[in-house]
Design a protein that fits this description.
Elements lengths: L2 H15 L7 E14 L4 E11 L3 E12 L6 E13 L2 E12 L4 E10 L5 E10 L4 E9 L1 E3 L3 E12 L11 E16 L2 E12 L1 H9 L5 E12 L1
Antiparallel strand pairs: 1-2, 1-13, 2-3, 3-4, 4-5, 5-6, 6-7, 7-8, 8-10, 9-10, 10-11, 11-12, 12-13
Length: about 230
């Protein structure tokens, strides 16, 4: 299952090596390392990005996952992407990834567009084509408002969608889920920030109907506590 991911890493590394004479930098960002508490079981989530490249192109490895709090992490997703800047405020990424799950793993190809329409607003849209030919996607808007004393107000909106019904994943075509959240971050040390917030998660459309028929929750609101790192 991980062959596509390995191939994407190799392709991105070879492409990046062709520009080795340019100034190459390595960066690590753990945007979210957080615990959701309140309704339902406590939930752990992490979202990290590793970059190696220049101002115009590079290798991006994204690792994210989460689970209800317990002895094991239920699911981890990893992507290897070649990133190329289109303008000073937009880049396109292409690559592949794999979801490592307690059941059957799932490999997929990825295409993404990330942009900063104006200072403080980050927008992204990812398209995923699974090994079974299913097309899904995820979009997100994050707006950072800098306040005094090293505090940042960070509203975030995200949604997921599917181009077709995917019974194996309990997905229906159309918008499948959306999330609204607000985090208040405080800079603690140059690479470290801590934050608190609140998140509302909702299933939508036919996907919500599937969950309801299975007796599952279709929406939940929880408090957030977490840390972020960047260096």
């Amino acid at each position: 299952m991980g062959n596509i991911l390995i191939s994407a890493l190799a392709f991105a590394a070879v492409t990046l090596a062709s520009t080795a004479r340019a100034e190459t930098r390595f960066g690590v960002e753990v945007d979210r390392l957080e615990l959701h508490v309140g309704e339902g079981p406590e939930h752990f989530l992490f979202d990290s990005t590793f970059t190696l490249g220049t101002d115009t192109q590079g290798l991006v490895v994204k690792v994210e996952g989460g689970s209800d709090v317990g002895a094991h992490i239920d699911e981890v997703g990893a992507q290897a992407l070649y990133a190329r800047s289109v303008t000073d405020t937009m880049r396109v990424m292409v690559g592949a990834g794999n979801q490592f799950r307690s059941g059957e793993d799932l490999s997929f190809a990825s295409l993404a567009v990330e942009a900063e329409p104006f200072p403080g607003l980050e927008a992204e849209h990812y398209f995923f084509l699974s090994e079974h030919g299913d097309l899904t996607g995820a979009a997100q808007l994050v707006y950072g408002v800098d306040l005094p004393a090293g505090i940042t107000l960070e509203p975030r909106a995200a949604l997921g969608w599917s181009a077709q019904d995917v019974p194996a994943e309990e997905l229906a075509s159309g918008i499948s889920e959306f999330e609204l959240s607000l985090r208040v971050r405080k800079q603690l040390l140059p690479p470290l920030n801590g934050y608190i917030g609140v998140v509302r998660e909702e299933l939508a459309g036919g996907t919500r109907d599937i969950a309801r028929a299975n007796g599952d929750e279709t929406g939940i609101t929880r408090a957030i506590v977490g840390i972020g790192l960047e260096f």
